[in-house]
Amino acid sequence: MIDKYVIMPNHVHMIIKLSVVQEENGRPMAAPTISRIVNQFKGSVSKQIEYSLWQKLFHDHIIRDEAEYQKIWRYIDENPSRWTEDSYYTK
User: How many independent structural domains does the chain possess?
Assistant: First the structure.
């Protein structure tokens, strides 16, 4: 589940929550990996726009507690207002 995101001119930030889903027989199913989620996201967008604009790699980080979650949430929320300070910003 994507819990928070922002689409910037040259990158995307997301908080993705992984959870274990129970099958009908009560056994847990394996959660998808971050790599699989990101690859499917990139593939879906590329298919819709009919070309790929993505770099090969991505950066991920495990959020370990509520304080870190809130810090990252604020960073994502405030990131658009800091765009002009980004090293890749161009007019």
Answer: 1
